[in-house]
From TrEMBL:
Function: Displays glyoxalase activity, catalyzing the conversion of glyoxal to glycolate.
Reaction(s) the record says it catalyses: glyoxal + H2O = glycolate + H(+)
InterPro entries: Class_I_gatase-like, ElbB
Any one Gene Ontology molecular-function term assigned to this protein's record: lyase activity
Protein name: Glyoxalase
This protein's encoding gene: elbB
Zinc among keywords: no
Keywords of the record: Lyase
Family assignment from sequence similarity: Belongs to the peptidase C56 family.
Family annotation (SUPFAM superfamilies): Class I glutamine amidotransferase-like (SSF52317)
Length: 220
């Protein structure tokens, strides 16, 4: 049986959900490596809906995070509260502002943020079992709250987000768009992706490196 990776989504669309390119590149690389995967998302209402053509909040419109995430997963998705770490060998969180709006309230609260309880419960099982955890784009900001202080991560070079990570007890490492940061002790792998990427090919290089390293760590 092939190794199995859980992928957590936060909606569909960079401004209010999971980043579409980051998610697609992650699933592509998992498939290229012959790794099985299953997508999960919380069954909750989105923080808000953004008109991606105008970049404005669509007042009065409401959407469900699980339902929107199903668009990215082609319907093959399960509620986050059904995720069991025992069933998987690793877990990956693509970015997108859904991480900061739906999986947490970082977009509003900054370093005073709270993380969705379902996500904390899911990630704690992987961390306790020393199973690899990959995070990209804005999602590494969750690490100090999800996994504890002193874990090295990257969001690239963003001083505001890096400062928030440090304020929460995390360790931020500057990193180029095409590279990764690995905390070997905690088995956490991060890459900036669209925190820095200006082209999909730039994001792909770092994301592929992240998935490749997650694959390697699953064998250790």
């Amino acid at each position: 049986m092939s190794k199995q990776v859980a992928v957590i989504l936060s909606g569909c669309g960079v401004q209010d959900g999971a980043e579409i390119y980051e998610t697609t590149l992650t699933l592509l690389r998992l498939d290229q490596l012959g790794l099985g995967y299953r997508c999960f998302a919380p069954d909750i209402e989105q923080h808000h809906v953004v008109d991606h053509r105008r970049g404005e909040v669509a007042d009065g419109e409401r959407r469900n995070v699980l339902t929107e995430s199903a668009r990215l997963a082609r319907g093959e998705i399960a509620p986050l509260d059904e995720l069991e770490a025992d069933d998987f060998d690793a877990i990956i969180l693509p970015g997108g502002f859904g991480v900061a709006k739906n999986l947490s309230n970082f977009a509003e609260a900054g370093d005073g943020m709270q993380v969705l309880d379902e996500l904390t419960e899911a990630l704690s099982g992987f961390h306790e079992a020393r199973k690899p955890i990959g995070l990209m784009c804005i999602s590494p900001v969750l690490v100090p709250r999800l996994l504890g202080p002193g874990i090295a991560v990257t969001v690239g070079h963003d001083p505001g987000v890096a400062g928030a990570i440090s304020a929460m007890g995390g360790l931020h490492r500057s990193c180029g768009v095409e590279d990764i940061v690995v905390d070997f002790e905690n088995r956490v792998v991060t890459t900036p992706a669209y925190m820095l990427a200006t082209r999909i090919s730039e994001a792909a290089t770092g994301i592929f490196k992240l998935v490749d390293r997650i694959d390697e760590l699953m064998d250790l």
